[in-house]
């Protein structure tokens, strides 16, 4: 797994993908920081961390589009699939490499809290909770994107489908508001990444929210392994 991890992580920075993702993440999150804090003189970071959901959902396809589609396009997937390494180790190596790039991107946003801490006293417990939620959110989006990438050899197709799925995730709360009954609204909100992530930005650490995101990670890594298993024996 370590060899796959190193190979994938290095690949993000031997191509522009890693740099583009980090730069765009920083620019977009910085825009929200300026809009919600600097421009209005607010020390409340919750809105910025809430908008990091949008940043992650819109930009994650840049990170995930090549995860498996590139190997399929270059016909190197069969080499990996027949290598003396389990599918789980292969997928975890790729998953953790993408997650580390994501961690680098979100770590940069700590600058916002450090800037504000010079002028006001911040609630660091809420900030830590928010970053824990951001990490879980990113892990879930990476797992979903990796699954989509396993279905096609085109990075462009993988990116477009991932964007459509991620935008749909952004709109789940709006869909819930259209439901005719409270029970249906609660059902849809229970499946909402935004709703579960929002608790972290309020400093609420609930096991149900942690379990929700980890379940998505486990589910989509499992589904990806089934796709590759079928390809291995197909």
What characteristics describe this protein?
234 residues, mainly alpha
Give the structural class.
mainly alpha
The number of helical elements comes to 13
Q: What is the number of independent domains?
A: 1
Contiguous low-pLDDT stretches (5 residues minimum) are none
Strand content: under 5%
Largest sheet: none
Counting DSSP E segments of at least 2 residues, the number of strands comes to: 0
What is the overall silhouette? globular
* Mean pLDDT across residues: 87
Q: What percent of the residues sit in helical stretches (DSSP H or I)?
A: over 70%
Order of helices and strands: HHHHHHHHHHHHH
- Our measurement of the CA-to-CA distance between the termini, rounded to an integer number of angstroms, reads 24 Å
Task: Please state the CA-atom Rg, rounded to the nearest Å.
Answer: 19 Å
**Quaternary organisation:** single chain
Describe this structure in words.
The chain has one domain (2-233). The radius of gyration is 19 Å and the shape is globular. With 234 residues, the protein is mainly alpha-helical. The protein is built from 13 helices and no strands. Helix 3 packs parallel to helix 8 (124-149) and helix 8 (124-149) packs across helix 9. It has helices spanning 2-14, 17-38, 46-64, 69-73, 77-81, 87-108, 110-117, 124-149, 155-170, 172-177, 182-190, 193-201, 207-233.
Summarize this structure briefly.
The chain has 234 residues and is mainly α. It has helices at residues 2-14, 17-38, 46-64, 69-73, 77-81, 87-108, 110-117, 124-149, 155-170, 172-177, 182-190, 193-201, 207-233.
């Amino acid at each position: 797994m370590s060899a796959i991890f190193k190979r994938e992580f290095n690949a993000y920075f031997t191509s522009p993908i890693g740099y583009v993702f980090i730069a765009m993440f920083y620019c977009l999150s910085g825009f929200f920081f300026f809009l919600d804090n600097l421009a209005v003189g607010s020390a409340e970071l919750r809105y910025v961390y809430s908008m990091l959901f949008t940043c992650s959902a819109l930009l994650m396809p840049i990170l995930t589009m090549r995860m498996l589609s590139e190997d399929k396009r270059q016909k190197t997937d069969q080499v990996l699939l027949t290598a003396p390494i389990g599918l789980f180790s292969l997928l975890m190596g790729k998953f953790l490499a993408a997650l580390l790039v994501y961690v680098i991107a979100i770590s940069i946003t700590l600058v916002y809290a450090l800037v504000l801490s010079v002028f006001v006293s911040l609630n660091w417990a809420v900030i830590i909770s928010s970053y824990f939620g951001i990490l879980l959110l990113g892990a879930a989006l990476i797992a979903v994107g990796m699954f989509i990438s396993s279905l096609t050899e085109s990075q462009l197709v993988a990116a477009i489908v991932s964007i459509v799925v991620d935008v749909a995730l952004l709109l789940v709360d709006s869909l819930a508001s259209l439901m005719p009954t409270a029970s249906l609204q609660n059902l849809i909100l229970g499946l909402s990444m935004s709703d579960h992530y929002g608790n972290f930005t309020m400093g609420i650490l609930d096991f149900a929210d942690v379990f929700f995101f980890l379940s998505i990670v486990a589910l989509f890594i499992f589904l990806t392994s089934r796709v590759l298993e079928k390809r291995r024996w197909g």
